[in-house]
Amino acid sequence: MTAPPAGSPPGAPFAASPWRGRGLGTRTVAYTERDPILYALAVGARADDLDLVFEERLRVLPTFALTLAQWAPDALGALGAFDTGTAVHGAQRLTVRRPLPRAGEISMTARVAEVWDKGGAAVFDVEVESEYFLAVWSLFAPGRGGFGGERGPGSPRRPGPAADRRLTVATHPEQAAHYRLLGDRHHMHIDPEAARAAGMHRPFLHGLCTLAALTLPAAGVLGAHPACLTELEARFSAPVFPGDRLAVDAWDDGPGGLRLEASAHGQPVLTGVRARFAATPSAAGPADATGPYKETPDA
């Protein structure tokens, strides 16, 4: 446990943010088969990945759930918990409970699970729960700290100096424009003026799009299907711009698991990534270089 803020008397208890435990309501979101297909294409699936893009064979990527639950962090911002113009998505966790149906309705309940005090900023953990998944957004909010709370967990360490595997993952110039149609329509991902107001030289890719794109080659490395993802977590360290190529270091993390770090232009963009996949009957071993869901080869 971290120490109370400077100036507090010895043994003083930590203060809790008034937002901690705040309920954000329940919402039911409906979708058709078209939506998970568009999602798969937006995060890097190919036209010949028929079980991701063809309704007759469709398996829904588990990360699609995060587009259905995007309303929850947006709702907290709308309540005034933080400045939506300066807050950033710091980290994401996803635990898969059941495969998502091809189409239907998903009921979700959201709350502020925790608020960490970073001094000059606060981190809001927004938890969204359904029968299919448990997801947690960590939102870094400048100017909302200093209330005397716990600092919370620190940054994860790099698994080791030498990666077990190295991958290359390509993004494409239209990717942010495609991904925003799935629900996250914040202007900074499409409008150059909004991006500049957010401190970026041009529109940038959604962090959740970058993260989901990484799960496809990660599954390929393990000989798994990307729809068999069971756990995922990551920190967003820097923006990715549409068209960037990601250099990815990967470390084995037990059966069905990988730890990963991704960089663009020599700068880390995703750190502390952990992905785990359930075994599938057809997964006899790692996919070969021409197998499905492999990373994009260098040009």
Q: List the quaternary state of the chains.
A: single chain
Query: Roughly what fraction of the amino acids lie in strands?
Result: 25-35%
CA radius of gyration is 19 Å
> Order of strands across the biggest sheet?
1-3-4-5-2-7-10-9-8-6
Helix content: 10-25%
Would you spell out the secondary-structure blueprint of this structure?
Blueprint: E1 23-31, H1 34-42, H2 50-53, H3 65-68, H4 71-78, E2 88-96, E3 104-117, E4 121-129, E5 133-142, E6 165-170, H5 175-179, H6 192-197, H7 207-222, E7 229-236, E8 245-252, E9 257-264, E10 267-277
Antiparallel strand pairs: 1-3, 2-5, 2-7, 3-4, 4-5, 6-8, 7-10, 8-9, 9-10
Short description:
By secondary structure, the protein is of the alpha+beta class. It contains seven helices and ten strands.
